[in-house]
Amino acid sequence: MAPIVPKPRSSSDAAGSCAAAGPSDAALARRYERELGWPTAGRAPLRLLTGVRFDVLELPAEAGHAVLRRGVRTGPVLLSGPRTGFLVAAGGAEELPGLLDWLEWGPVDLDLTALGAGGGVTAPPFPAAPPRPGAPESRGGPEDSPGAAVWLRPPEPRHTPEPELPALARFGSSGGDAPDLVRLVDAVAAECHWVRLSRARAGLLTRGVADQPLAFS
User: Fold this and answer.
1) Phi-psi region of 85 (alpha: psi -120 to 50; beta: other; left: phi over 0)
2) What is the pLDDT of residue 148?
3) Which of the residue ranges 4-8, 36-40, 166-170 has the most confident prediction, judged by mean pLDDT?
4) Nearest Cα to 138, choosing from 125, 127, 153, 148?
5) Could you give the strand order of the β-sheet that contains 47-49, starting from the edge strand earlier in sequence?
6) Is 90 helix (H, G, I), strand (E, B) or coil?
């Protein structure tokens, strides 16, 4: 039987494929690379590459919002679906396991991951101009743009990003103006643990009600 050969794609099909990549993604990539020096890859969605200019700590969105309410100094923070991403200095992903052990969080399952070399996160829309002094901080979330990545604490365009990224201060170093990575990791771990406990407690209560329907009658 003669092999079935697919029909060649028409020029309109090819054009549609190019359109799927999105000219807006190309423009967004240029802005990130030109104004912040952040490398990008892919299209639909565009990804910000980790391990080059920054790494990312990823944790549940509920825990991430709790960390922001604590007032802990952070770098830029993004929200993508059910996860928040805290940008830290490049190399921070490699430091995370040792820091968690040192802070005695090592044996605890925290639902906390780190993205370093070879990783990437979905690129949010490029941050707008900084808000006026006294204006409320951005509180974008899934309800504002379902499924899309948004900045909760945006980076500042036209500035070198590294000084504002949490870093591990070395012995004998003041650490400069960068937020302290140790303090951030401790706060992140605590909130991740609290979220897991809350979810486990809610699950136990739900199962208890299902198993004992007359317990509260």
Assistant:
1) beta
2) 82
3) 36-40
4) 153
5) 40-41, 47-49, 120-122
6) coil
